[in-house]
Design a protein that fits this description.
The complex is a heterotrimer of chains A (281), B (353) and C (284).
Chain A (H helix, E strand, L loop, with lengths): L6 H18 L1 H28 L8 H21 L1 H13 L1 H7 L4 H7 L7 H20 L9 H27 L1 H4 L3 H13 L9 H14 L3 H12 L10 H32 L2
Chain B lengths: L4 E13 L5 H9 L3 E14 L4 E5 L6 H9 L6 E6 L9 H4 L2 E5 L11 H12 L3 H14 L15 H13 L5 E5 L7 H18 L2 E5 L3 H7 L2 E6 L2 E6 L1 H8 L2 E8 L13 E6 L2 E7 L3 H11 L2 E7 L3 H11 L29
Helix pairs in contact in B: 5-6, 9-11
Chain C lengths: L1 H22 L2 H11 L1 H21 L14 H18 L4 H11 L3 H5 L4 H30 L11 H27 L8 H14 L11 H9 L7 H7 L5 H36 L2
Helix pairs in contact in C: 1-7, 2-7, 3-4, 4-8, 4-11, 5-8, 8-11, 8-12
Classes of the chains: A mainly alpha (281), B alpha/beta (353), C mainly alpha (284).
Chain lengths: 281, 353, 284
Amino acid sequence: MSEHPSYLGVFRTFLRNSLVREMTFRSNFIIQCISSVSWTLMNVGFYLLIFSVAPGIKDWDKYEFFVFLATTMFVNSIVQTFFMPNAQEFSELIRRGGLDFALLKPIDTQFLISLQRTEWSSMSNFLAGAILLGVSLYHLIGRETDPLQVTPLMVILYVFYILCGVAILYSLMISLSATSIWLGRNQTLYNFWFYITNFSRYPMEIYQGTYGTPLRLLFTFVVPVLVVVNVPARILAKPFSPETGIDWALAGFAVVATIGSLVASRWIFRRALLSYRSASS
Amino acid sequence: MAAIIQIEGLAKSYRVYQKKEGLLASLSGLFHREYREVQAVRGIDLKVEQGEFVAFLGPNGAGKTTTLKLLSGVINPTSGSATVMGHVPWKRENAYRRRFALVMGQKNQLWWDLPAQESFRLHQQIYRIDPESFQRTMDELTDLLDVRRLLKQPVRELSLGERMKMELTAALLHSPEVLFLDEPTIGLDVIAQHNIQQFLKFYQEKRKITILLTSHYMKDVAALCKRVVIINHGRIQYDGSLTGIVDRFSGQKIVTLQFAEGHVIDRLERFGEVLEVQTPKAKLRIDRGQVAKALASILAKHTLEDIIVEDPPLEQVIADMFSQGSDDSPFGDPATTGEPIATVVNLPDAKND
Amino acid sequence: MDIVIGRAVTWWTILRIALEERLVYRGDFALGTLMRFLPIVTQVFLWFAIFQTAQAARGEDSLNDVTLVGYRYQDFVAYYLLTMISRAFSSMPGLASGIALQVREGEIKKYLVQPVDLIGFLLLTRIAHKAVYYIVAAVPFALVFFLCRGYFVSGWPPLGTFVCFVLSLVMSFLLGFFLEAAIGLVSFWFLEVSSLLFVYMLLNFFLSGHMFPLDIVPAPWDTLIDILPLKYLAYFPAAVFLEKIEGPDLVWGLWVEAAWLAFFIVLARFMYWRGVKRYSGFGG
């Protein structure tokens, strides 16, 4: 027996167990899929309405923005599939003593706590996002003026930055859940989570002016939720135009922000555990 | 060889945050908090040798569970030291966590909606048990506990007793050398309790593992443990055999007399406290030192058909102990490990508490 | 006479208990209300960007000259703020699911045994909840509206319009209540109403107008919106306040809302009556 468990093997078992679990409640699974896709369709409908009366949102025209929206759907569906159910479970774990069991296991506690449940039904939004992305790219590549050219590098960077975005949101979520060790319940924290991530769903250029600029700086540099969708979406939707193209400094910062968020959330989680371990009976 | 569990001056106190209702109050609580200090364990010294089966007894809140959690490394102590198999538990090294297990009767770690088998697989991954020995251990345990046919049933559909058996199986899959059991039979019916006792007895004797058990059921303790540690108010108040408790803490015997004359003689109270008179029987409580003298003087004048001399019921003695037990312990120094005493005691039936 | 007084006392007691229960959580309430305005903040930025883009595309000099479906930028913000008020009246969190739960758990028996009527009881507790909510939420609402007063370009509407606005709000509360109560009462026939409730929420979210002014919706769909009662839950009061609906249209709108309200009152009553009959028929 080796010193460390096989993290990949454990993760695979998590995925498998969650799938078995969801398949035992199949009708529930289907309802969940339909419901999350419906909300997404509503959202798409909302923007279709906007673009029916307005020419664009800042420099994003209709299909460019739909690339943005599809990116949001990818990031959110990954977060909701892999992390959200665990974060929701966290305060329950503390209350019912499940955290004690997690601490006993010869495996990293944060890994165990934040990944053990998977909600496969949320992946339906990933599919919806893929369809939306496909349609949008088809229009962008086929348009008359300045057709989009997708290069392998763009695709690689796109995937990479989506993963960075997921990591940032994961860090934010695990930090918020960890505070429930101090604060007890976390209903308010959830609202907090939704309000904060709400900011990440729009192109960052819309935050401008007296109130907008400080908000943009806050959500870029302090709580970096704005780079989550903005960076990958811009890489794919409008990579090369000199004025509106990707700001490489921002892209570089996104990597720094990802690493910083992961480190910070790790630190917060450990602090919270430490205080759990010295404060509880 | 050093003892497998060594505890010195182990203490744990924690602050309970006096929570207030409402969000604003909670927010202000972030900056200004009111605490209450709770001393759960106030300095425990204990040595357990390899292969021992030790019971922790004590009323609720005495510090038993806290001690087990400290030894499992789930929580950090305020002061003192402990080693289990040479490891300091609260360092939480993987090497240590691989070698012991904790079972809590009131909490479950199996996935509620999944068959137990799937949770076992997860354990296999986490503890990195090789597939062969995993299969072998699982078969062995589930046969012993007679739950093999339930492996494919979702845990939520199992009875409490069956679930506990699965919890035990999960805990033993990685063949721990030290096992901590916190109220493993709580809430179970008599048969399930008995099954689990039998299993633990068998398994412990076969594998020679070291087990620490807390329980409210005297039957568990009587059936399993040669050594009993009584904890109250966070301190050890007794450490020895179960029967030794009576010898040590009860200075009296219960004497039942059955008279041949067909009636009970008068003025029995000069010998001791009269507990019950049911002609032709009488039950007295007599100081241990006076028993011989009293019997001699009764026998000198009356014919008796039967005499029973016995210790007071164990639960009674322990309950008396707990009700007296306070900071200034009336029991003196904790006793050292004692050998089981030869006298057979009528163990009281398990009370449902 | 005694019966009437006795009944009034009963109702008053229910109302008072519900009020006290709610007031305990006032701290959470006030802060929660303020937080609820946060999503609007992003909407405000979004629409500002949209108007800017439209202004550049149309070559207008000032943002104030740009209108989309008859709304200036300020009107959009004012509209969102006003729908917060309509939603505060018409949304009934937990009402339908609460009724369904009571039916499922058999708690409904209580109302069959005791001389209280379920719908009346729920309406009173709801009024109490809402009343407390308005008392506590008044401060954050007033704060936000004061800070945003610049967006209300036309200022206060004329008194007549304002009266109509208040009237439409009160009716939207009652309409929301009886509509959701009717959905909850479906549980007498189908125990699981959560899917139905989900469909309702989805339609409500999109077609009541709290995502966007309904004027934006193009041709075939606007008929659907006119047919459904959902627009009275968010859009209608806000549009009345902003004087988007005036004159005969306004009067007609109010009558239609009243008709919908009457319809759902009768429907809820009828469903309750049939449901109870069915329930006691089965013996619970």
